[in-house]
Q: What sequence folds into this?
């Protein structure tokens, strides 16, 4: 009998409940209100313009291999666009990636050895923490409150762990899944701790450009410019379209070649035609208007979801109230708190509504009394129907 030739690291490839929900939902035949995936609303994707761009922009060179760091035309447009935002950067810092996930993969690949300690938020975007695990990280979960990661708690947690972290994985704006935003004071404190520990901050911010209320908070790159311990991961997935699979990394120039080498070991270059589509979309000047439209729409959708929750589930749940992004975090209260949201998922699916159960968003499966709702992909009318169905599911589960 042969034992399996799988690598030891295969045990660490834990997969993604979030991604699996896409296949699961695709297999359902009945009508489902989809609060599960964190995807932009279909109707916000500029499909017609992409079609027009695709009919004009491609050349004979659009379908061959591209430079690993990214198509020059996209780098130029991206840098030009970012110069108009609070996160201007320069070419020596930027590498185009296949979405944010590849940026995370590169970051953990570069900084994490097997057995290294990595701080992750609790709850967190578990596709990110799973990537850390795939490189053998030991995860240290750190609690959050309404101002994001409780940075003040980190020194004691690290002392109890008996060793310092190599990386701190944080989603500072409108966090996936909680919707909370890390306060400025905590951002500053986190940078100090990172320096004390010589740990890299993996600054994963897909939603920062989608603030629809409240005051902007400076990003890590603004708080500590040119800091080699800040590795920023960005993506067009939430602000344009996730199927394009185009994102970027903004990191210290001293590691850019390493970023490029990591990417060369993965996929040579990011999808060339899609880079040209994004570049031309920016070149035509549509991105600002597009973002302004998204902010208005997502704000209205968040308000509608909170309103529906208030009317149907008032007193039975507590929710966060994000100033941007895609997600609400809902915690069951009172008698309902005894309901397992993992068990509720099945009942809810039968009722025709989908969400992500809390344990799927925790590195150690916590939060069985909580769930994530994406308000961004559903119109207010459908959201009302979805919350009615969720209420019915909760009544049945009691
Ligand atoms: C916090 C966070 N990071 C990274 C990603 C991955 O982005 P992409 O789809 O561009 O790979 C997501 C997508 O849900 C996300 O929410």
A:
């Amino acid at each position: 009998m042969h034992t399996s030739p799988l690598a030891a690291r295969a045990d660490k490839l834990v997969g993604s409940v979030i991604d699996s929900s896409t296949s699961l939902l695709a297999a359902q035949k009945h009508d489902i209100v989809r609060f599960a995936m964190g995807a932009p609303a279909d109707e916000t994707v500029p499909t017609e313009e992409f079609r027009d761009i695709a009919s004009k922009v491609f050349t004979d060179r659009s379908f061959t291999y591209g430079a690993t760091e990214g198509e020059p035309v996209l780098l130029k447009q991206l840098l030009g666009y970012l110069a108009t935002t609070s996160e201007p950067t320069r070419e020596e810092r930027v590498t185009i990636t296949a979405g944010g996930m590849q940026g995370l993969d590169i970051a953990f690949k570069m900084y994490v050895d097997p057995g290294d300690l990595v701080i992750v938020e609790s709850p967190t975007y578990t596709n990110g923490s799973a990537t850390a695990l795939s490189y053998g990280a030991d995860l240290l979960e750190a609690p959050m409150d309404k101002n994001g990661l409780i940075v003040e708690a980190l020194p004691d947690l690290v002392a109890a762990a008996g060793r310092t972290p190599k990386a701190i994985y944080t989603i500072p704006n409108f966090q996936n899944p909680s919707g909370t935003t890390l306060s400025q004071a905590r951002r500053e404190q986190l940078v100090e701790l990172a320096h004390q520990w010589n740990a890299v901050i993996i600054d994963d911010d897909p939603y920062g450009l989608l603030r629809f209320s409240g005051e902007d908070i400076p990003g890590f790159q603004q708080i500590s410019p040119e800091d080699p311990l800040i590795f920023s991961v960005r993506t067009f997935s939430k602000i344009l379209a996730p199927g394009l699979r185009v994102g970027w990394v903004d990191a210290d120039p001293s590691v850019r070649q390493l970023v490029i080498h990591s990417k060369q070991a993965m996929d040579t270059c990011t999808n060339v035609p899609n880079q040209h589509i994004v570049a031309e979309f920016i070149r035509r000047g549509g991105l600002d208007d597009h973002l302004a439209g998204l902010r208005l729409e997502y704000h209205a959708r968040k308000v509608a979801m909170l309103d529906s929750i208030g009317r149907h589930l008032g007193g039975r749940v507590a929710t966060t109230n994000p100033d941007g992004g895609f997600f609400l975090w809902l915690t069951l209260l009172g008698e309902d708190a005894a309901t397992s949201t993992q068990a509720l998922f099945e009942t809810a699916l039968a009722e025709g509504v989908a969400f992500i159960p809390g344990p799927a968003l925790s590195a150690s499966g916590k939060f069985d009394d909580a769930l994530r709702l994406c308000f961004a992909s559903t119109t207010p009318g459908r959201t009302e129907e979805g919350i009615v169905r969720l209420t019915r599911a909760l009544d049945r589960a009691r």
